[in-house]
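Sequence, please.
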């Protein structure tokens, strides 16, 4: 049996972690080494089945809740609130192999290391993967952890219709992951998530570990534009009600708005669909999504207001109608100061360079922060690239991050308080 102090020398097995990362990446594999496992698709089901098999092989108690979140707990018969880690295994359609999966598989690796070493802890441990973190098929993002934390009623989440018109609850049943565990869940004792930074900061400053202080505010809006289809050759410009032009004007506007507001404001039009989408037809309709983010919630609200004013003027000028539907709106979140300090302390004790920093991306940890002390550990992204098959983090950084997670969890699970 290993006690808390003797476990200071513990390290994860990187080859075992890497083998699981690569095995999971085979599911939904796309060109250039990327992954496509959109939430609740068959690829997501196969990925879930594989990760659950690893949890069961480790002897964890595996619980599936009503929104499909999966939690593996050790000891299997424990009833106390666990120290939890985890993330997500769903991906965007052009994803990499580390976004989300690193947090889940490093969590399994940490538990395997602790169980194998026979470490006795004051608290149980748990590793989770949450449903539909990406929000790319069913908005909003971080949906499963939002329901887990009580931020959205289960029935509202199950009724969500995806961008592909599928109904979330039906897809959850179809893939066999509508579980019995009630939502919202009982709060864990604490939650710490390991994740790739997905941005350029750590690499640019040649740092290894990010002690994440929180997550910036997020606003997603879907805009539906209705104009009038007409002949591209015969219709004078003054007579057009061009939904395609209006969509493009909005995309240009939000780019200009973010540039004018300056960092950390960002704005993205990631989806644009026009109808009938033909070379010689002035578009009758267009739908697009606008993603606005800032660490300052007042500035997120200001950017939403500026967008609404622009759309009203554009609709009037172009003789189109523009309807807005909010898909996601999350205020910035601050992580628990003691958890942030613990991440920093453990990283420094392991001789790793570290920096306190906010997250530009949304994460399940921001929802767990509603129910318990939460924090995150970042490792660098090569060239700051993510949501792209070229997503990459070095083996050394992956291993360093997983070992920081190991020792942060050991400290949280050993502490009596
Ligand atoms: O949208 C996000 O920031 C996350 O990738 N779901
Ligand atoms: Mn992620
Ligand atoms: Mn992502």
């Amino acid at each position: 049996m290993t006690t808390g102090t003797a476990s200071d020398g513990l390290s994860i097995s990187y080859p075992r972690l890497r083998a699981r990362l690569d095995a999971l990446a085979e599911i939904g594999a796309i060109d250039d080494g990327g992954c496509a496992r959109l939430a609740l698709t068959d690829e997501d089901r196969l990925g879930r089945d594989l990760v659950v098999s690893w949890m069961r092989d480790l002897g964890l108690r595996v619980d599936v809740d009503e929104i499909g979140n999966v939690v593996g707990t050790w000891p299997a018969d424990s009833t106390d609130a666990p120290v939890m880690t985890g993330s997500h295994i769903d991906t965007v359609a052009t994803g990499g192999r580390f976004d989300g999966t690193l947090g889940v598989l490093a969590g399994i690796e940490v538990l395997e290391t602790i169980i194998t070493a026979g470490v006795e802890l004051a608290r149980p441990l748990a590793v989770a993967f949450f449903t539909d973190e990406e929000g790319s098929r069913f908005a909003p993002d971080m949906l499963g952890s939002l329901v887990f934390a009580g931020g959205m009623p289960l029935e509202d989440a199950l009724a969500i219709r995806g961008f592909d018109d599928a109904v979330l609850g039906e897809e959850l049943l179809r893939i066999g992951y509508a579980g019995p565990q009630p939502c919202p869940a009982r709060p864990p004792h604490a939650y710490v998530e390991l994740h790739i930074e997905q941005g350029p900061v750590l690499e640019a400053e040649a740092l290894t570990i990010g002690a994440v202080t929180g997550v910036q505010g997020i606003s997603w809006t879907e805009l539906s534009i209705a104009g009038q289809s007409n002949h591209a050759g015969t219709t004078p410009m003054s007579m057009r009600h061009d939904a395609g032009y209006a969509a493009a004007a909005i995309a240009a506007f939000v780019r200009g708005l973010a540039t004018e507001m300056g960092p950390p404001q960002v704005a993205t039009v990631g989806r644009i669909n026009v109808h009938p989408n033909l070379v010689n037809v002035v578009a009758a309709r267009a739908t697009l999504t606008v993603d606005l983010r800032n660490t300052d919630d007042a500035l997120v609200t200001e950017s939403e207001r500026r967008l609404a004013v622009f759309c009203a003027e554009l609709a009037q000028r172009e003789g189109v109608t523009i309807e807005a539907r909010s898909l996601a709106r999350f205020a910035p979140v601050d992580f628990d100061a003691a958890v942030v300090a613990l991440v920093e302390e453990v990283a420094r004790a392991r001789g790793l360079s570290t920096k306190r920093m906010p997250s530009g991306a949304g994460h399940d940890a921001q929802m767990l922060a509603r129910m318990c002390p939460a924090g995150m550990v970042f490792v660098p992204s090569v060239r700051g690239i993510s949501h792209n098959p070229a997503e990459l983090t070095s083996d050394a950084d992956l291993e360093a991050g997983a070992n920081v997670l190991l020792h942060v969890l050991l400290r949280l699970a050993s502490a009596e308080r």
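The pocket of manganese (II) ion (ligand 2) is lined by residues 88, 99-100, 133, 195, 363 (CB under 6 Å).
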